[in-house]
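Notes to self after the call with IL:
- keep both proteins in one doc
- input above output, always
- annotate only the second one for now

Protein 1:
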Amino acid sequence: MGDEALDIQLEMVRDFLNNEAKKSQDYVSLEISRTLKSKGKLLRPALVLISSKLGNNLVTDIVELAAAMEMIHLATLIHDDVIDDSLHRRGERALHARIGVAKAVLAGDWLLARALSIAVRHHDASLLLFLNERIEELCEAEIKQDASSGKLVISREEYLQRVDGKTAALLRLSCRAGSSAAGVDLQILEILDKWALIVGRAFQMDNDAFDYQEPQKNSAKGISSDIRAGLSTLPLIIAWESGDSKIRKLTRNGIPSSSRKRCQIRKRVVELGAVGLARREAAALYRKAQDQALLLPSSGSRDFSIIVDRLMDRDF
């Protein structure tokens, strides 16, 4: 599927989500509409669409399935913002900060339930099992993260487990949704699953590095918002691994309550070169993902390489 064909199908996904917004409650509609206006990459729907081209089955309602993956993603973002008390999302105030926690949680619940209803229409027992396992994995990762709240620096192993359980889980689900619906064989499913796991890690590492960079003009996202939320990200872990006495002292008592101390942590992480190192780790994984894509049939290898290229060139 070339760039143009993929973009056309993604516009169809946007149209479907637009119709879902019109059928939902006001505050759910508000969040879906805001997502569409942000002109995001729609990464997860894109993975559903290109994965469906690897099989022999003609999937007539693939756009609906792709939209369902974006609805699951949106539901997790809403719930994440509530749990982390993140006040901004995509440069605007988070949903719970505008309409209240109760309504935001209900909006996320509705989006998840609606997405599952759409997915069930495909009547693929293996896909539904995989879907439920990934949602369970998402919840477990969130529970473990909550259990370690107050601990600003975690081990690299625990960090990767979180990434695999959250960011990578949804990418794996998106690849499996499209490929299973299209009747892709087991060998290709395993290649896709590994590709998605690698890309999920790289994607999150890049996001982590961005949190330590200057915010874009007119962005409402504050510098080092992840530190304020108490999220242990790769640049901070790399800085801590360096053995630097200053960063260890600054993080010794857990999540800093003052903006001054958060700025000190951010400054030291940047001084130690940890942001650049995190981005280099992400770039290495993206290259590994390109190699993994070469194992796919020629019809799909280019499509998955295009996705990686777009992620490496994204401006956040």
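Protein 2 (the one to annotate):
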Amino acid sequence: MERDIIASPPDSTVRIARVLCAVTFSPSARDVVAWAASLAATSDGEVRLFHALPTADVHAAETSEADCERVLNKLFALAHHLPGRPRISAAVMEGDAASEILRHARLVRADLIVVGMHAQDGSVSPLVTRLAIDARCPVLVVGARSTPPTTRDGLRRILVAVNFLPASLAAADYAFALARAVGAAVTVVHVLPERWDGPSRPDRNVDETRRLVEGHFRRLLQIAVSTVSATSRDRSDVVASGRPCVEIGRIAASANADLIVMGIDARPTAPDQFGETTSCVMQFARRAVLLVPERLFGAPRPRRRDRPH
């Protein structure tokens, strides 16, 4: 059965031809590679497995070469379990991990970077923040509990969080373009932060006011997202009240979302961190999180070829 989709602008498409999969050999490394392969498959793309070794001593060239060969073998071993025959290549470089990943992403013109959320010791890797802020393409962050899409079903449901700031509109734009490319449904979420100075108690007036405010913001949400993305009937808009991190995770679970998309501000509060809500969602939502930099908003994308009449 075909989905009834309203026609979209010809330039609002996403083609993931080359995925740079940054492997740190964390416990979730296999899932990281599986996510990279799944998204590359949407465009018959290539997965480039990549690892950065610490800079070796100039007198240890032979040891360094042996290490590179060993790591290459480990990288390819991570792809042995992938179904089908995905296009896989691999590279190993020496140097600072973040700098080398960013440089290699520019070199191969990566459309997407995929990286694990955790370091080898299980802590949240600072590498994620550096990549998300400085990369020229979206960054998919995969946690230990982020289940990769199956080959049969693929990516089916995408949730995008919108707070009306430019970064979140860039995320919505990308989320809808990706959804059109893979045939996924989109849930758009806005959360009204709710802070009470006094004790919480049942109050019908407060409940009615909350419903009116949520309805107003739901209409604003529809207008805002429609200005950056072609509308689709396979879309739902949700406005909730509460702590944004908690509500985004709750709605993602109830919608059975495979992926959460969030925007990254072009001007983070500090050079090594982004918003509290984004960090919280990454750690607790149990979903892979796709981070879209604000500067991608309105960036030209490859146009679909017009069908001959």
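Annotation: Confidence is low (pLDDT under 50) at residues 1-11, 302-309. The chain is about 35% helix and 20% strand.
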